Amino acid sequence: MPGSIDLHTHSTASDGTTPPETLVRAASEAGLAVVALTDHDTTEGWDAAAAALPDGLRLVRGAEISCSRGGVSLHLLGYLFDPDDAALAEQLGVLRDSRVSRAERMVAMLVADGHPVSWEQVREHADGTVGRPHIARALIDSGLVATIEEAFTSDWIGTRGRYWAGKHELDVIDAMHLVHAAGGVTVFAHPGADGRGRTVGDDVIEEMAAAGLGGLEVDHVDHTPETRERLRAMAGSLGLLVTGSSDFHGSNKQVRLGENATAPGVLDEIASRATGVDVL
Ligand SMILES: [Zn+2]
Ligand SMILES: [Zn+2]
Fold first, then answer.
1. Ligand 1 centroid to 247 CA: how many Å?
2. Where are the domains of the chain?
3. Which residues of the chain fall short of a pLDDT of 70?
4. What is the model's pLDDT at position 21?
5. CB half-sphere exposure, 181, CA atoms < 13 A
6. How far, in Å, is the centroid of ligand 2 from the Cα of 214?
């Protein structure tokens, strides 16, 4: 939708297929007013996106941080934090290193079972941090699967699947404290995306709200209308902001930029609470 605000996208700095500079151009061509770049566990794409920012498009710099609580994985969006904050930058580095070693473990398991894939082949698909979509692309190259979706099933590298390996995750409350200390605002990404695996209960959302969570990403492609309604009510009762976004990954996922959007007043509120970096 023209003029809309999309607060969650991925570039080649993590597991998207669009370089940051191309992503901002595509966001502008799609008619967005604001786009947030939120690569997994990295701020690597920020500078390239900022340098290429077209007139009329604003950029929110952020990251999507790999977290867990009580053994359940979850994703935390951090917006407008200081990328040079030492404590946060160090923990993001630990998460990135762990992404590489888990990908190496998955490739090793595939190789051990005689599948014709190699680490070099996976690396060729990754410009930034290696992720599962890069392994999926190597599986397609080798003719083992036909699509990315097929690679993400339990027969291959889907969560807890045959060739899946876990990665390091930050306790979500610790991660929130790190982002807040770095001047950022936190939003719980796709809290009800149960198609991806287990999701945390309402008690964890309440705990996060008490620890200063800014909002819930309610309008997300992985949420049914019923889930959105439930989360919206919960955000209302806990005094949390409601955001919406595409979670765009280029051709690695079938969503369009701006497919879900955030209200302008919500972005104003996020921007006014943040003290790390400004919206560009
Ligand atoms: Zn996510
Ligand atoms: Zn994402």
1. 7
2. 97-151
3. 1-2, 252
4. 97
5. 12
6. 17
